[in-house]
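Single Protein Entry

Contents — chain, fold
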Amino acid sequence: MSKPSTAERPPVDLTRRPSIEELRAVIHPEGMLQRRSAEHWAGRLYMRRISLRITRVLSTVTAITPNGLTYLMMLTGILAGVALLVPGLAGAVLGALLIQVYLLLDCVDGEVARWRRQTSLTGVYLDRVGHYMSEAALLTGLGLRAADLFHREGAHAAWQWAFLGTLAALGAILIKSETDLVDVARARSGMTAVEDSASVPRSTAVAKARRAASLLKFHRLVGAVEASLFILAAGIADAVRGDLFFTRLAVVVLAAIAVLQTVLHLLSIVLSSRLR
């Protein structure tokens, strides 16, 4: 017998805490965690196991709304970028920890919405804005960290590093917007949402380049989770070395990846069937 659809579910009893099994059947529908294009590797690996239990606790706390959790996710992501201004290893550790909280909230807000049947266009929109703002804040914070605002290595801040961090942040935003604007362009033309199969470039050479880039997965480094871990590794190396060499190297690497991926991703979209 097939499982009842969401529309056939009985009314949600917000006074009773559901079991893990009840909750999982609704908020982690079959196949969701296996969709690699829709689920972050950290979610599949560990965060969804944690978020499931947090969502169970919040399922009866009606004072907390899904959109409220999304706003909290935004704030946490921005604070992760601010945390990088804390000198030394402490700033890198705090930034990485805050990004883990950001990822947790990113999971929980949608789970609470699905359980309570409070999904909305506003929630989807705020979630996307939260990703834009958080990744931009993290990479901008990295640039300011590398600029040595507190003059640990000289009498003046080295603003060229702040510029590179901002460039990386701009690239991260553009990469996401290139993807989102496909749906905008299709909607304005009266077309339906794009199918996954349409993402394959029509050019054989471009398709091979896309597969190679996908195997290397270097583009993921500008994502919030991966970038925070990369920054943490640089912070640890700097703590051993006693300067900001590896943090500044991280800025160069992330800025280069962001700029390169912005161009390659744009070409991949234009040369695929997503806009047809």
About this structure: The longest helix spans residues 159-188. The chain is about 65% helix and 0% strand.
